[in-house]
Amino acid sequence: MLTMDNIVREGHPSLREVANEVALPANPEEKALLQDMLEFLKNSQDEKICATYNLRPGVGLAAPQLGINKRMIAVHFEDGNGKQYSYGLFNPKIVSHSVEKAYLAVGEGCLSVDRSVEGYVPRYARITLKATDINGDDVKLRLKDYAAIVFQHELDHLNGIMFYDHINKENPYAIPENAKPVE
Ligand SMILES: O=C(O)C[C@@H](Cc1ccccc1)[C@H](O)SCc1ccccc1
Ligand code: NI
């Protein structure tokens, strides 16, 4: 099972590189890794397992955070309306997005960042994402608000972008233009 020891931290080159597309169909090792990433997220949200293995709770994870520069992400969370999202995806891509932006009112964190970085992270309020799932099926997701924010955080990891790159340097809590807060 994956633990925090497998997660690289700020300064590791893979967090600042553009990850490579996975040649499809994915090989057994890539499928197993995606399964492990999803299992890590579920474990990190299980009180007992989380405490036993000293995991940080996470709702998303990208392969570059494991030092693996492949375009693979996993997400496991429930949005504010109780809708569940649990996906392991190869080669996710935003195919369209809203003009309107959104930001998480409490700010963002990152499993690869062992410090608090304050400020609003402006992201698209709505995105349409295409990918290939762990079974090799095409996936098209229309996402908004919290779900859109989580997926964009993970997609950024595939392009070497950290959440704090988006924060206004002069005034971290400046309300981003044309953006709505997501509680
Ligand atoms: O480091 C990662 O990619 C995982 C992040 C994803 C994330 C952070 C902020 C906003 C959206 C997604 C971790 O999940 S950070 C810890 C966390 C845990 C529960 C809820 C929100 C953030
Ligand atoms: Ni992160």
Automatic annotation (TrEMBL):
GO terms for molecular function: peptide deformylase activity. The active site is at 154. InterPro entries: Peptide_deformylase (IPR023635), Peptide_deformylase_sf (IPR036821). It comes from the Bacteria. Its EC number is 3.5.1.88. Gene3D superfamilies: Peptide deformylase. It catalyses: N-terminal N-formyl-L-methionyl-[peptide] + H2O = N-terminal L-methionyl-[peptide] + formate. It is an enzyme of class 3 (hydrolase). Keywords: Hydrolase, Iron, Metal-binding, Protein biosynthesis. Binds 1 Fe(2+) ion. CDD domains: Pep_deformylase. Its cofactor is Fe(2+). The keyword Metal-binding applies. Fe cation binds at residues 110, 153, 157. PANTHER family: PEPTIDE DEFORMYLASE, PEPTIDE DEFORMYLASE 2. Removes the formyl group from the N-terminal Met of newly synthesized proteins. Requires at least a dipeptide for an efficient rate of reaction. N-terminal L-methionine is a prerequisite for activity but the enzyme has broad specificity at other positions. Belongs to the polypeptide deformylase family. This is Peptide deformylase. It comes from Ornithinibacillus xuwenensis. The gene is def.
